[in-house]
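Changelog-linked ticket: MTE example.
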Amino acid sequence: MKTRIPHDIPESQVTPEAVYRSRREWMKLGLASPLLALAGCADAEDAPGAASAAPAARDSADGFRAADELTRVQDATSYNNFYEFGTGKVDPSKNAHSLRTSPWSVVVGGEAELTGTFPLEDFLKGQPVQERIYRLRCVEGWSMVIPWQGVPLGALLSRFKPTSKAKYVAFTTLADPDQMPGVRYPALDWPYREGLRMDEAMNPLTLLATGMYGKPLPNQNGAPLRLVVPWKYGFKSIKSIVRIDFTEQMPLTSWNQSQPSEYGFYSNVNPDVDHPRWSQRSERRIAGTASKLFAERIPTLPFNGYADQVAAMYKGMDLAKWF
Ligand code: MTE
């Protein structure tokens, strides 16, 4: 029997491949982008010929569908950070073929009523797969816009009945030197670890992705299961997850552990807080047909443009202190 791993959503719900053309390409063809139509915001300004005067297209109100021009599949799958396969941008696409993504299981532990080891199919069972078009901004200063398929993390976590002691969720990546050549070198203290506060994990934007561009996740993008947290710097979006723990204390995270002065636990995208070694005011947007080298520099937005959906979670917090 074929197992339904949910990248595998009904054809009718996946944005067709042709729609993944860039907005600019559709403009060139004299057509308004079907993406905008899907996002429910193909208004008059998006009509052919009005490109230069058009105000920026709007995301869907829930933040689930960014209106930005999409990154090409080939760029999203060949310019990656996945240090378990090397620290160069092309290393993951060259080396990640050695990752065995099936069978795969996820250990759930800590402050929850239901814990244990779950084969991936059981772990994801019954969770409706959704498509989300998210911007993801890397702390290094580049960003992409990717159509993901996956399950909202919050609904999935609720199934394990976290107890009142569960204040945080900790995530761990596989660390197997036989499958992951980068793990043989101490680039980070393996395994790669990340964490979210409980309300961040439960936020409707937080996605556990199983696919992108309507296909299963490529290994270099974190197959078979990765987090996507679009309002935080990309390193929070941990790949190839094998373990999830509910914790009472703020969990250790890899980048914070390696450079606490540079990478905080929260790591919300914030143009007003510079990285100690560079500004975070702008980003190189890798999208559309322009070569990566000539990618357009655009201003970085607070919470990566998702302030309407997430800013309330940080009300009263000094975001320069809690970076
Ligand atoms: N997860 C693991 N396990 N190892 C990593 O090195 N890199 C992070 C994040 N998740 C990383 C990881 C960083 S720095 C970024 S920017 C994103 O993955 C990149 O995701 P992408 O390659 O799919 O664009």
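Closing comment: Example verified and attached. The domain at 19-314 is CATH 3.90.420.10 (Sulfite Oxidase; Chain A, domain 2). The radius of gyration is 19 Å.
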